């Protein structure tokens, strides 16, 4: 009887062992993949923090709910994201309030990146996140010029502005 029980247990282990191993491997891969996606979102936001209108930056912001909301470990990230998103959705129409709005926007964005860094195991402080981003002055001027060109072209196309023509010999 003892040999029979030992035989049944051995056969069960032979059959169930690989199934458990495969399921464990799938679990590990799923967890690793989710962590990789969260890291990717964080790295994109860090890399584009000085270029917040970049399409990669916006896509990464829109991925936060998708990648961070399933785990309570990331609740501070989700809270910081909700506060930042809410602020972005309510921009100021009062010209005198724009500098205050911009400062608050920057503070909320810094807090979001800080909470992401903490939750992902990085040791960044808020000052590093806020200040250590390279953004050349020429890029800002280039963006401003492109905006001006597009804005003026639209005004001409809408008939709001005219194009002056000078005939020379």
Q: What does the overall shape look like?
A: elongated
Rg, please?
27 Å
Helix content: over 70%
Estimate the mean pLDDT confidence. 86
Class computed from helices, strands and strand pairing: mainly alpha
Instruction: State the end-to-end distance.
Output: 114 Å
What is the fold's blueprint, element by element?
Layout lengths: L1 H46 L7 H14 L6 H14 L9 H22 L6 H6 L5 H21 L12
Helix pairs in contact: 1-2, 2-3, 3-4
Description:
This protein has one domain (2-157). 14% of the residues are buried. With 169 residues, the chain is mainly α. Helix 1 (2-47) runs antiparallel to helix 2 (55-68), helix 2 (55-68) packs across helix 3 and helix 3 runs antiparallel to helix 4. 73% of the residues lie in helices and 0% in strands. It is elongated. The mean pLDDT is 86.
Summarize the structure.
The chain has 169 residues and is mainly α. The radius of gyration is 27 Å and the shape is elongated.
Key features?
169 residues, mainly alpha
